[in-house]
Amino acid sequence: MEAPRVRVFRVEGMDCADCARKVEGTLRSVPGVVRAEVSFQSGKAYLHLEVPGAEREAERALASLGYRLRPAGEETRGLAGPWRWALLTGGLLLLALLASFLLPVWAGWGYTLAALAGVYPLARRAVAGLRQNPFSMQALVTVATLGAILIGAYAEAAVVVFLFLVGEVLEAYSIAQARRALFALGELLPRRAYRLREDGVEELPLEALEVGDRVRVPPGERVPADGVVLAGEALVEEAPFTGEPLPQRRGAGDGVYGGSLVVEGSLELRVERRPREGFLAEMERLAEEALLRKAQAERLVDAFARRYTPAVLVLAAFVALVLPLFRGDFLGHAYKALALLLISCPCALVVSVPAAIAAGVARGARVGVLFKSGAALERLAGVRHLALDKTGTLTLGRPRLVRVLPLEIGKEQALALAKAVAQGSSHPLARALREVGSGALEAEGYRSEPGVGSFAQVKGAEVGLVRPEAVTLPKFLRSQVQALGEEGMSLALLVRSGEPLALFAFQDEPRPEAREALLDFRALGLKPLLLTGDREAAALALARALGLAPEEVRAGLSPVEKLRLVEVLSREGGVAMVGDGVNDAPALARATVGLAVAEGTEAALKAADVALLSLAALPRAFRLSRRTLAVVRQNVALALGLKALFLLSTLLGLTGLWPAVLADNGALVLVTLNSLRLLWVRV
Q1: Which one is catalytic: 213, 226, 389, 580?
Q2: How far is residue 262's CA from residue 675's CA, in Å, rounded to a whole number?
Q3: Is 226 annotated in the active site?
Q4: pLDDT at 600 over 60
Q5: What DSSP state is assigned to residue 585?
Q6: Rounded Cα gap, residues 93 and 312, in angstroms
Q7: Which end of the chain is more exposed for a tag (fewer CB within 10 A), N or C?
Q8: For residues 154 and 578, what is the distance between their CA atoms, to the nearest angstrom?
Q9: Is residue 322 packed enough to be buried (19+ CB in 10 Å), middle (13-18) or exposed (0-12)?
Q10: Angle subtended by helix axes 617-651 and 330-343, to nearest 10
Q11: Rounded to an integer, what distance in angstroms lies between the CA atom of residue 458 and that of residue 496?
Q12: Each residue of 395-417: pLDDT tens digit?
């Protein structure tokens, strides 16, 4: 059976979390739609289709509710929200106000006409979505408006519906701005590129670039696509990807991201990925996927909101139907009940968490932190332990030759022989030897012995690069090997026909940002712990260089031992595990939050909850997570506080219909704007 096709659509008219639930429920009931996921934050629907043409049925189903399904690539045209109905209602309300001075007898009819004109689109949407949610805000406003007309509060009915429509327009506008801000990374790509041809330079549209094309990027221009530098040297600003404010020097052999800015110098590069399929697109895709996965706080707020609305509706029914039996004043109590209906909508509360989480995920993408879910962003704020892998995480993962100790031959000859053998090996130490500037001799008959080393025939003799422990060493050489090993160096012995010729010492250098990152971790109250399968001497040498105490190091660990240690830390306040290798994957998956360096293996990246573009981005991830949770708390307090205030003031008779609408829409706009602050916060 053919697997369902996944198609992405933009949903127009979806401007609240309640709308998203309604849209998702409708789409799931469409024949041919196997699965539907709707993200209010991104304004998109992800449909898993098994029947050709099912998307047309989905379009018709949503159209009946007042929503429009559009392909994700189409641009939104015009203003968002029901602005036409708001203008019409406002105009009629103004005419009714004038009539109240000039022709008072017609004023009531004028207010009624304004109220009915404004409530019409709301009533239509409420009726269309009655099965999905009988207590939608549109339904509540419709009932409140019609009820106000029935009890003779014509002017207030018109003001209520007008304020609600204006609120919906402002809400739709702020949400549209938020969505544009969330996914504005794609706008970093230039509109044109300069492709190099045999007969010169050709300027062409960005979409015409193909993988393998050679392009030139002059100073002041943005890189058109992900690529590798072939020639030239330049200072490149990568702040939108890594969060690093200072331009980085890039030259031949370096990779560059599409959308980065060449500040000084120029580059010639080979396109590695099409412009719209590069790293920027990947960042946006990860952000969108993260928004589909709810955080724990969001689930709790949703559960509360589902109980809050029926509870306030019961209270409204009590005020309207029971209290008049004891206290009289039926119209006065009916008025209070109508105001309570408006207060019962939990829109601001429901939006308070996903809006903040969405802004946090988007901000993370701009500072080199790619969260795969809102839950990961939330959990990271609570961890107290930080487990760090050594090789490739705290170090560069590229050993460098730092010392040559010739024994029977000269240094240059030793390097030439070693490079000859290294040509046939993929070992990291062999790669380090190949990078040394000295020339290599001709060699043949390459072979390797696991656990011993690599060998080749050079000038008729077998030459090898072996582990010092694999051969019997003279006493003086054993002491040298021991001393270098205690300094944390990796060693390779050059032998010819079994005779030691030279000893090579290599060192995997710490990442330049590692020491500063560890200081940041301590300032954040985290307890760092270095976990490595490497020798204890090498681990302690790195710890000394980075300012870690010996008790903060665990060396010689197998992947299973790493996993068990992470499990213990998970129970003792939560642990964030940072790694980059295949052997780190089990621990990354088991940790409270797993973070993988983007340069690492695919297995590590898949197992992790968060991808980091550099180690410097790790402290930013923690700060961003904590600030996002702080904004979530502010939003919830604001939404609940305003609801409680107007609930009490309405019961006391201090406020009426239009302040209730103003409070609801005002709270919605406020929590959205408060969340948007995260898009520009410094982390």
Answers
A1: 389
A2: 32
A3: no
A4: no
A5: H
A6: 30
A7: N
A8: 63
A9: exposed
A10: 170
A11: 9
A12: 887 788 888 888 878 888 888 88
